Predict the structure.
Amino acid sequence: MSELLPGDLPRLRTLRTWHALWVVRIDEAIAAAEQRESEQRQREERRPATPDWVVELSVGVGARPIEVHIGGCHAAGKRQRAITREQALVALADGMRACTHCRPDSALGVL
């Protein structure tokens, strides 16, 4: 391995300095990556739990419930409100539409 290195002291010292600078850069990059991972982990820990049931709301002033979904349904849209299992049952019994993707009516046992 030493046959790949120059034999004179000034060039060896230059190489050592150059590599030491790279080690510092690599250590800084590792610290930054660890910081990003730590922040991501903290965001995930603080994120509220996905509700079991949600109701999708209509657009506009006085938005009204229009469709029942299982929590986390990809088709639920951005305007939604968490509801309890009992509220989901009542909403479906009152004729509110059930999502055709997540099928909350089947999950709740509503015929």
